[in-house]
Design brief:
With 684 residues, this protein is mainly α. It contains 32 helices and 9 strands. Among the domains are: 209-308, no CATH class; 317-367 and 531-679, no CATH class; 397-525, no CATH class. Helix 12 runs antiparallel to helix 13, helix 22 (474-495) crosses helix 23 (508-519) and helix 25 packs antiparallel against helix 29 (618-633). 48% of the residues are buried. Keywords: Signal.
Length: 684
């Protein structure tokens, strides 16, 4: 029986182990017999499972056969009260460890990620250092991980999906505890992952284009001082320019800039430089006239014609190689792709792909496209994949919205001070709004902004947002409201969850969905009228259009990772060509029939592809979840209390969380149903 259980656990537990040597197997069998004799036959199943889980992860460096047997006989716990106390010990200890490392890493990375002055050469090294990289190794070396594996169950995704609805909250906490030790990745590999991530994030954070120096036929289309980060700000400027008089020429220019970035034909010298003028159509570069150079910039540089080397794809390749180094330590999920879907998302890749293709192939998409064309009064162009005219803010120009936000939030401190009022406008009771505001720290971002959660209850989540010298523009405000949604979820899912082992939400798509719920109400936060019936109708079409856009990007992210696994010895240049080919293939399948243009590479522009390790599928799944939450809230339910109820349920499987939140598992019905009602009967 023990040999069979060892084999089963080796298949179920992703640890880099060879089969146990005969001496270890004999010691485990003897320990099993002794433990069953001591604790009774009623404990046999637990004993055999726990011993098998330990044996699957035990290495010669952990001790010889005698040490293994002694450990097993000393550390097995059978009495219910003692087992509950053991779970509590782990829960409190891991909260302290996790929270401490989050604090330390936050301090180490602050100079690289916050806008607190010029970076020094040491700052990227500090950001790349992961204080907790050795934690799992240390917990195994100290035998603490083995205590958890001996006493609590490892489970497969199939088991969690099949049985999770019947488990108690404590049983879920036990599952999450053991799951932390399902893989034994060496600290050196974790540090390699941290380094690759940091290098990619720094590259992306510095990937700016000074738009005043982007010329089209010798004409400057953008205002002085406008510096747009790729891809976030470039995409958002396309959205903003639907409300500007000369927006079409700007949008076409930005599309060309994006194409130059993804094809790596952008001149290296114009990246993040206010000293050179550049025409993205001809790719000509020239020194900028002195009177066009932003205040404080250095004298004009000599024009440089060389294209940017394939740094973008070199960074992506580094993340792949770092992730692949962890593959041998995860037998049940032996690729990063499998780990993202099976272990992190707990949604099988096939199911995610099917959900996304349901949206991409929906007959509602061409109908939405016709509506976009009608509203624009012209044929669609590829950049219209980011059409934003359905949203209420399209009633206001970018300049009007900028004036509102800059006046209200001239500094980060002003946004921090206004958090109670913002949260009250979002539907939280005054006392809850104050509580939340006191538990979020706002800081100036060097990049576009992000939310950094806490991991222990005496620490605080941090909101990072970009604030210019003349205040927070509307783009920054919109992102800040989104990030605030993340932070509020982080507060509730840490401070109000019943077991800190369950802190968080099922996966990143859920925290994105909750952040989308906040972001959709940004104009109400500014005191502008809430959407009327017509505006709500258009918002439903907007949600479909946004999900349609990002679904293809998500499929590309997955396809690129699959290509890298099929070609592990690839070069950055080969990866560039493969990525562009995959992007064009997906465009031709799902977008060319709608837009009437083939071989467009725009799906490859997302910076997440470079720095976020297969993150992008979380966005469209997040849109589906957000649609379900919005459908639930539409039933005359206040946002504040419902958001709190949902976010404090903790990290269980996605469908279990969604049934608790909305009564239904994850699906496309809410999104497509709302769009169908908004578009009305098909009259074609």
């Amino acid at each position: 029986m023990l040999t069979a259980l060892v084999a089963l656990t080796l298949a179920a537990a992703p640890a880099p182990m060879t089969p146990a040597d005969p001496a270890a197997a004999k010691a485990a069998a003897q320990a099993t017999a002794a433990l069953v004799a001591r604790h009774g036959p009623g404990q046999r199943a637990r004993v055999e499972r726990g011993v098998a889980q330990v044996l699957a992860a035990w290495r010669p460096s952990d001790g010889d056969a005698a040490a293994l047997q002694a450990f097993l006989e000393a550390q097995f716990v059978s009495e219910p009260a003692a087992l509950e106390a053991l779970l509590a010990r782990f829960e409190q200890s891991l909260e302290a460890l996790d929270g401490g490392f989050v604090e330390q890493n936050r301090t180490l990375s602050r100079w690289a990620v916050l806008d607190v002055g010029p970076m020094q050469r040491v700052d990227p090294l500090l950001q790349a250092f992961d204080a907790g990289a050795h934690l799992v190794d240390d917990l195994f070396d100290a035998k603490l991980a083995f205590v958890a594996l001996l006493n609590f169950p490892l489970t497969t995704l199939d088991e969690r999906l099949r049985d999770g609805a019947r488990w108690s909250r404590r049983e879920w906490a036990e599952v999450r505890l053991a799951g932390r030790f399902a893989r034994r990745v060496p600290a050196a590999v974790n540090q390699q992952l941290a380094q690759a991530s940091a290098d990619a994030e720094i590259y992306i954070a510095d990937d700016n284009v000074y738009m005043h120096h982007v010329l089209v036929g010798g004409k400057r289309l953008f205002p002085k001082g406008m510096r747009l980060l790729s891809h976030w700000n470039l995409r958002d400027q396309i959205k903003a320019d639907y409300a500007t008089q000369d927006g079409l020429a700007r949008q076409r220019a930005i599309q060309k800039v994006m194409e130059r970035i993804v094809t790596q034909t952008i001149p290296a010298a114009v990246v993040n430089s206010p000293l050179l003028d550049w025409d993205p159509y001809t790719n000509a570069v020239a020194p900028a006239p002195r009177d066009t150079i932003e205040t404080g910039a250095a004298p004009p540089a000599t024009a440089a014609a060389g294209r940017e080397p394939d740094t973008r794809y070199a960074r992506l390749l580094e993340t792949f190689r770092a992730a692949r180094a962890a593959d041998p330590y995860s037998p049940i999920a032996p690729t990063h792709i499998a780990r993202k879907f099976e272990l992190e998302r707990e949604l099988p890749e096939a199911r995610v792909t099917a959900l996304l293709e349901e949206v991409l192939s929906s007959p509602l998409v061409p109908r939405a496209a016709k509506l976009v064309e009608q509203r624009l009064g012209r044929k669609l162009e590829p950049f219209d994949v980011w059409y934003d005219g359905f949203r209420p803010r399209a009633r206001f120009s970018e300049a009007e919205l900028d004036r509102m936000t800059k006046q209200r939030y001239p500094t980060v401190a002003a946004f921090q001070q206004d958090l109670p009022a913002i949260l009250a406008k979002l539907g939280f009771a005054p006392d809850k709004a104050r509580f939340l505001a006191e538990h979020v720290v706002v800081e100036p971002a060097r990049g576009s902004g992000h939310a950094l959660g806490a991991a222990k209850r005496n620490d605080l989540p941090h909101l990072r947002t970009r604030v210019g010298k003349d205040g927070m523009d509307y783009k920054g405000f919109n992102i800040a409201v989104h990030e605030l949604g993340h932070n509020v979820e982080q507060v509730f899912s840490l401070y109000e969850v019943d077991h800190t082992l369950l802190q968080g939400v099922p996966n990143t798509a859920f925290t994105e969905a909750l952040a989308f719920v906040f972001q959709a109400r940004d104009l109400e936060v500014l005191g502008l009228p809430p959407p009327d019936a017509e505006a709500r109708r258009l918002l439903a079409v907007n949600d479909l259009w946004m999900t349609y856009e990002i679904a293809g990007v998500a499929l590309l992210d997955t396809a690129v990772w699959r290509w890298m696994y099929a070609h592990p010895q690839t070069t950055p240049a080969e990866l560039r060509e493969a990525t562009l080919g995959l992007a064009k293939d997906l465009w031709n399948r799902w977008y060319a029939p709608v837009f009437g243009v083939r071989d467009v590479p725009l799906l490859a522009i997302y910076s997440h592809m470079i720095s976020s390790f297969l993150y992008l599928p979380d966005y469209p799944i997040g849109h589906l979840i957000a649609a379900q939450i919005e459908e639930h809230l539409a039933g005359a339910k206040a946002l504040g209390p419902e958001f709190e109820r949902m976010a404090s349920f903790g990290s269980v499987t996605p469908d279990l969380w969604m049934v608790h939140a909305t009564g239904k598992p994850v699906g496309t019905a809410a999104l497509l149903g709302a769009a169908a009602r908004a578009l009305g009967p098909d009259k074609s």
